[in-house]
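REQUEST FORM: STRUCTURE PREDICTION
Request ID: SP-0412
Submitted by: Lab K.M.
Chain count: 1
Length (residues): 200
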Amino acid sequence: MIKLKTIKRNITNEIIINKSRFITKLIKINSEIQAKKYIENLKVEYKDATHYCFAYIVGNIKRFNDDGEPSGTAGMPILNVLENNDLTNILCVVIRYFGSIKLGAGGLVRAYTKATTDCLKNTDIVNLTNGLNIKIEFSYDKIKQIDNLLKNAIIKYKEYDNNIIYEINLTNEKFEDIKKELKNNSLDIKIISETLIETN
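STATUS: Completed
RESULT:
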């Protein structure tokens, strides 16, 4: 079974090939909507670039685009690098400033592959495992106990009102470990969605 991975942090890298600038952005994403928004924003940020080629993977969704480069010379090579590294929840955009020298189809494939690969070398890759995004609500007198119980969990959101609400990500295994203790303390547990959790 393939072990899915993602990048630990967003990163930018730049290379120059035959006078063309290739600016590569590797970005963590959680949805296709998020990917599209990042692409739109990059087109504004680098508004004078020649091409904005990209590929992204979110769950079972895989998309790529050559953005004016010859068909199959940009988006697919970017996607291939992401797939070959078993990555998910990731967007890669390679922004090209044309440098007056044509690279040819083979040269473009090599350039976009290198741009993506070089950028990937500069970031840490983390493993992912199946997990749950859950919400729990508890009284203020239980905060120390809950914080200790959830010390290895990823707390996404905290709300302090009449009670305290935490939204957290837990691996399936960790959830099973603490579910009984949470219920023993009469805590309201709500599973919001399934998600992927970083494990290192």
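NOTES: The chain has two domains: 5-123, 129-198.
Reviewed by: T.R.
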